[in-house]
Automatic annotation (TrEMBL):
Reaction catalysis annotation: L-lysine(in) = L-lysine(out); L-ornithine(in) = L-ornithine(out); L-arginine(in) = L-arginine(out)
Primary localisation category: membrane
Superkingdom to which the source organism belongs: Eukaryota
Location of the Cationic amino acid transporter C-terminal domain: 551-601
Record localization: Cell membrane
Membrane topology, as annotated: Multi-pass membrane protein
Keywords: Amino-acid transport, Cell membrane, Glycoprotein, Membrane, Transmembrane, Transmembrane helix, Transport
Family note: Belongs to the amino acid-polyamine-organocation (APC) superfamily. Cationic amino acid transporter (CAT) (TC 2.A.3.3) family.
Residues passing through the membrane, by range: 32-54, 66-86, 98-124, 160-181, 188-210, 253-274, 286-312, 332-354, 384-403, 409-428, 488-508, 520-541, 553-572, 578-596
Entry-linked PANTHER family: INNER MEMBRANE TRANSPORTER YGJI-RELATED (PTHR43243), MGC138914 PROTEIN (PTHR43243:SF10)
Protein name (database record): Cationic amino acid transporter 3
MF terms in GO: L-arginine transmembrane transporter activity
Amino acid sequence: MLCGHLGRFCEKLVRRRPLEWREGSGGGLARCLSTLDLVALGVGSTLGAGVYVLAGEVARDKAGPAIVLCFLVAAVTSVLSGLCYAEFGARVPCSGSAYLYSYVTVGQLCAFVTGWNLILSYVIGSASVARAWSTAIDSLTGHHMSRALQESVPLRVPFLASYLDFFSLGLVLLLTGVLVLGVRESALVTKIFTGMNLLVLGFIILSGFINARLHRWQLTEQDYELTKSESNGTLSLGPLGSGGFVPFGFEGVLRGAATCFYAFVGFDCIATAGEEARNPQRAIPVGTVISLFICFLAYFGVSAALTLMVPYYQINSDSPLPEAFLHAGWPWARYVVAVGTLCALSSSLLGAMFPMPRVILAMAEDGLLFRALARVHPRTHTPIAATVVSGTLAALMAFFFEINNLVDLMSIGTLLAYSLVAFSVLVLRYQPDQHLSQNEKTEVEITEIKPGLDAGSQEPVPEAGMAGFLSSLWSPESAVPTPQSGHIVYECALLLALLLTVLSLVLARWPSRLVSGDPVATAVTALLLLLIVGLTFILWRQPQSPAPLSFKVPALPVLPLVSIFVNMYLMMQMTSMTWAQFGIWMAIGFAIYFGYGIRHSLETSEPQPAASSSHTRL
């Protein structure tokens, strides 16, 4: 009896949603966003104020002029995740992004974890940008606003901000009202701010190249000593490095690339607009790829211009671009940079707030969150309840908290979502598909009934037991996916995800042991790599679905696996305090799921089919 109840309980946790349009799902949302709207949304969300600050920080302390390589490496690794999102956008025109993708692939509990952490990421992201907006305005007014608030409404509570930030509160509530008005209005405002931001960045890149000196990419220690002597020996900027284009070596490029990777976070908001985009099967893949390409060009150009205008060791980390123009003799350009910063913050704030209610809407429609949050306004066609609730939550967080301490917590949710999307693409491509032609279906049925059929003799070849199973791993009999091959892929993908997580943990936590040649660490790493290569080869040998899509991730299964590894490696860099905060957030989420969501889910409580066969409805 106990085993039966436990079995039924576990079946509920792995219930999967069919990857198809559900009647009534998001029915009140309006399909009005063009590809240009999605590009503006993706660029606005990704290309925030970091482009005005991050390049200076990384160039000065980690990479020097090789920061352009850091952004190149970061862009390539971000594209790995972006391509996975693009394929899912081509598969189904639904809201929910990574939440939906994990629901149809891994199961309900994993989907809730994904959606719950996406909400956390968007809330913290919105609050942090609002705080940055407030800080920018405060600096322009000579810090009078912050001093007045610290005197009138100080906060002396641990983990909270030093004062109540009424400006951030009002700003988030104002943009919440813009989002409630309608998706067209939100898209228009986003396009205006994003366009102005790109114009300012174009000015920075062009003027930077006008004031460029190629010698600044070939600096030596003599240049450093000369600068120090000119400043009467008061220059204290830390070690110069070895000079040249890569002064901090290859290790510095990798450390800088890990930091620059987060500069590309935000493009996933495009996938949440699946039910509001015209022709989403084409618009979402195209919008995702173009957005990442534009962001890379902007980051690459700004970092190149900055390091060509100013020697990298003289860059001001807090205000790199204004100080660079002051160094070049263009002090008036600081005001142009200030305008661009405010436009970038505005578009980034809208980009962070836009996807949040769409994820909440998708979860509420599925019954995993409270059904009242699924209300869509009949006139504005916006998820009004989810927008108001999420906007209020972000406003209160910006009002009370010092967000800088929570940025790493936001990164965990984002990287987890990226990993699950890559895993979902890896699994779904190898599953049987309902869109097969009649001849292909007949071939699948024959393969299922007579897996050892010989084409020449038309008689089954006896090959059973373990030998037959191992043979099917290396030489599948069917040219299209079967339930058996789908099951093999699912199990191998799970093992690969586990092995990649362990490998990333080893490389992130014990790199010194590998460098020193520790025999135990070396043997463990070698064994992990051997298993990963073997399982990857098995996946590569399995047949892929021939169903036509407007976009497919190339180089399967390698590309999604590399994406999973990169994301897991970055997650393993987080501190124990960040993981403790993550545990608290998850405890709140599990209380909601096990107290409400598991009982109100729209998926039936009937036992789900096996992992491979559950995708035959795709």
